Amino acid sequence: MRVWFSLRRTWLSLELPILLAGAGLGLFSRNALILSVMLIPVFWLLHERKDRRTPLDVPVLIILLAFCISYWVSPLKDWTAEQIARALSGIGVCYALARQKEDLDLRLILYGIALLSVILAGVGLFTIQWVPNKIPMLNPLDWIGYLPQLGEKVHPNVFAGNLALLLPVSAAIFLWGKGRIHLLRAPVALLTGSLVLAVLALTLSRGALLAALTSLILLVILRWKLPALLGITVLGVIGWLIFPSMHSLIKPLYWFSSAEASLDLRQALWQRGLWLIEIFPLSGTGMGTYGLAVNHLFPMPSPLAPASHAHNLFIQIALDTGIPGLLAWLACLWQCTKWAWRAYRTPSTAPWWIRASGAAGLGAFWVLVFHGITDAVTWGTRPAVLLWAIWGWMILVEKVRASSLKQA
């Protein structure tokens, strides 16, 4: 019996590293993805009954049921199965993080996420399928065109949308860090955030870049509250007043003309997505089948090109899992946002990393919602596991916050 408990304890201590490794390898290998998904129920059974539960159990269960229905109605079974497997891998990582002990030092997670953001930004330089001439004054090929392209190409919008989720972590470390060591930590956090922001700029993903920049503004407001809000409001008014005189300087960027064409395409995709939701409100069309459904039922008018997804996160989730799945997903987001807010509002006597974690979570969720209005790259894509990991992190942050308050 002692041997069994020892083996069980050892195996459970490896849950998070194994599932993280499986999710990472699953980006490139379908076999690794399947193996990591198969291990999730094994770990769940090894845990004691009290450790299996999380506050997100009910909405996650609804999402799992929606996955079953999605697979049943999907005309593309293999593709839908792969999409579901990626979501299940993310849920496994979420639960593995949520089960970590309350005495875990959140600084390790903050530093780990900041390091991950730099690694992803570096990998992106060699894997992103760069788009030239989208903004002539910021052509990525002029800056990094000499770098070799390695492996499978990644769409810049997909990469930028997921990388932007991680940017608030470096900003939160920079803004909330304390102690003498912060004199060394602050420059590193600033450099890390700057590198991530530079890669985001090179992707030319307007939605992701704007979401990232506004999330930084949000963190500044959260850090200094009213003075920062007043200062940003004044600068915004001044910018608005002088904007007409600056129009002639900005026009050569073709930012607005290309954005207008992109908006026309998105509006057409959103409308067709809403039409499909009206037809399939409970089941959706099946995960990953938006393009097929649109082409058969509501073909795009010429010259607008067809797309594989709805370019709106909320419409896409409703199409993939039905309205019940969307409501369950929104419940998860709302609950995690509440936990992030509570952590941010923790008294200043508590360790700084609790407030920094809460602020980083709020910034990440701002990016998710803001960018989700015009794109759906944090759902149904290979790096979509990041969002589930952030949700698991917020569950852990709430546990650490509650434990810290009890000990105070």
UniProtKB/TrEMBL annotation:
The chain crosses the membrane at residues 20-46, 58-74, 110-131, 158-176, 188-220, 226-243, 273-293, 313-332, 352-373, 379-397. The keyword Aminoacyl-tRNA synthetase does not apply. The keyword Flavoprotein does not apply. Pfam families: Wzy_C. Keywords: Membrane, Transmembrane, Transmembrane helix. Signal peptide: none annotated. It is found in: Membrane. GO terms for cellular component: membrane. PANTHER family: TEICHURONIC ACID BIOSYNTHESIS PROTEIN TUAE. This is O-antigen polymerase family protein. The lineage of its organism: Bacteria, Bacillati, Chloroflexota, Anaerolineae, Anaerolineales.
